[in-house]
Specification:
This protein is α/β, with parallel strands linked by helices. It is 30% helix and 25% strand. The radius of gyration is 24 Å and the shape is elongated. About 1% of the residues have low confidence. It binds NADP nicotinamide-adenine-dinucleotide phosphate.
Length: 424
């Protein structure tokens, strides 16, 4: 019986490939390290033996060099009698620097005759805007793209093409499909479309490429060597050489590719854009500068939910709020007055530390005194060294007229010294 293996089957395109195959009544197994039908680890060949008809191949994400592991897997696939492999590559992989393995795997597949293959070369996927890849934080898309345009593609369209190639391999043998959306859009145009669809303001903010890559790497979301891919992808778009609309999706599926507006209607209805609400207080400028503190903002917003008005952390603060850093580190101010001054103090945070999560929230509310004591932990990385950083806080928050008027902060200085160095 026809039996498909979807590597990366829990990912953005793979999960849709698997669902689509299942919807057709076909036997399919998803494969990944976590939460898949079968455990599959590119680092562990013992997990890779499977006799199958067709394989959808997503290389290990986010590795840069993976050709050797894919080659070894293809040997196993040959031995197991696999008939066809559809490989998820990337737009213009043939022009990618040789330090990345997109092209090497394409060449390897072309050299094999025991099974047929198809190569998919998608542009940037639209899903990037709806997940952690290029997240919309407080109504801002921050990415080094300048005024360059890209024909963003819906992962569902990639999956639809992949499924056709797996189900009718003979028709798509040795084909290479360029998969792009119906219009090339700048990031500012993407922001305008999402604003229109969601009714909430979203804007685009350009950023220095090296700073952006440094921040992404520092979150631990990708390893340091993945910076070369981020650099290549963003500089390609910024230089005006981003992907352009093509007709391969239509040719293979008979369906026109999904527009960004249609994608946004689907994606943001389920998970609304976190946009800065309209408010009277002056906006803190360049909220994108505070990405490194997002987990802190979110956990405080959670701890104070229902007690204060405002969307973003800074909106919860009264204009004349006073912050006292009761237990802190040498060189840090003991007292800061005013919402703008607090924001300016925090603006530089990402130069040293980037947070990726926050947890252990406990909120103790004294209604009579209108004070909330928040306990929480934050986790991140040290920008300079990449080493892990965790700290625990107690913040004593006074609320008046549904705004924070006073904040007393206690942190663990030892954790800061361990991360950033001990004072001489
Ligand atoms: N983002 C874009 O705009 C874009 C554009 C063009 C091409 N691409 C390419 O598309 C690919 C990503 O595809 P996607 O978005 O469908 O995937 P994805 O959502 O990033 O998911 C990755 C999948 O691979 C699995 N995986 C990651 N590392 C693994 C490992 N070491 N061993 C086994 N499985 C592993 C993950 O599950 P586990 O973590 O549980 O193992 C998950 O199922 C990348 O090669 C990327 O270069 C992306």
């Amino acid at each position: 019986m026809t039996n498909f293996l979807v590597l990366g089957g829990t990912g953005r395109s793979g999960s849709l490939v698997a669902k689509n195959l299942r919807d057709r009544g076909l036997a399919v197994r998803t494969a990944a390290r976590h939460d898949a039908d079968v455990v599959f680890d590119w680092d562990d060949p013992a997990t890779q033996r499977a006799a199958l008809t067709g394989v959808y191949l997503v290389a290990p994400v986010p590795w840069v060099r993976y050709a050797a592991q894919v080659s070894a897997f293809l040997d196993l696939a040959e031995a197991a009698g696999v008939r066809h492999v559809t490989y998820l590559s990337t737009y213009r992989a043939e022009q990618a620097p040789a330090t990345m393995d997109f092209r090497a795997v394409e060449t390897e597949l072309a050299s094999r005759t025991a099974f047929t293959h198809t190569i998919l070369q998608p542009g940037w996927v639209m899903q990037n805007f709806a997940d952690q890849h290029v997240p919309i934080i407080d109504g801002v898309i921050t990415v080094p793209g300048g005024t360059g345009a890209e024909a963003f593609v819906d992962a569902a369209d990639i999956a639809a093409v992949a499924v056709e190639t797996l189900v009718h391999p003979e028709q798509h043998a040795r084909a290479r499909y360029t998969l792009t959306g119906p219009e090339a859009l700048t990031f500012a145009e993407v922001a305008a479309i999402i604003t229109e669809v969601t009714g909430r303001p979203v804007r685009y903010q350009d950023i220095d490429r090296a700073a952006w890559i440094g921040a992404v790497v520092a979150t631990g979301f990708v390893p340091a060597d993945y910076g070369v891919i981020l650099d290549w992808q963003t500089s390609t778009v910024e230089s005006g050489n981003g992907s352009r609309p093509g007709d391969d999706i239509y040719k293979v599926t008979g369906r026109h590719p999904t527009s960004l507006a249609a994608f946004a209607r689907r994606a943001f209805r389920a998970a609304p854009v976190s946009a800065a609400p309209v408010r009277e207080a002056p906006q803190i400028r360049d909220l994108g500068d505070f990405v490194a503190l997002e987990p802190f903002f979110r956990i405080v917003e959670q701890g104070l939910a229902g007690l204060v008005d405002g969307g973003h952390y800074f909106d919860l603060l009264a204009d004349d709020v006073v912050f006292e850093y009761v237990i802190s580190v040498p060189g840090y101010p003991r007292r800061v007055a005013g919402r703008e001054a607090v924001a300016e103090l925090y603006r530089g945070y990402g130069a040293n530390l980037v947070l990726h999560s926050a947890d252990e929230l406990a909120a103790h509310h004294d209604r009579e005194k209108s004070v909330v004591v928040l306990e929480y932990a934050v986790h991140g990385r040290v920008v300079a060294t990449g080493s892990a950083y965790t700290n625990r806080f107690v913040s004593v928050v006074t609320i008046q007229n549904r705004k924070v008027t006073h904040w007393r902060d206690y942190l663990d200085p030892v954790a800061v010294f361990d991360a950033l160095g001990w004072p001489a």
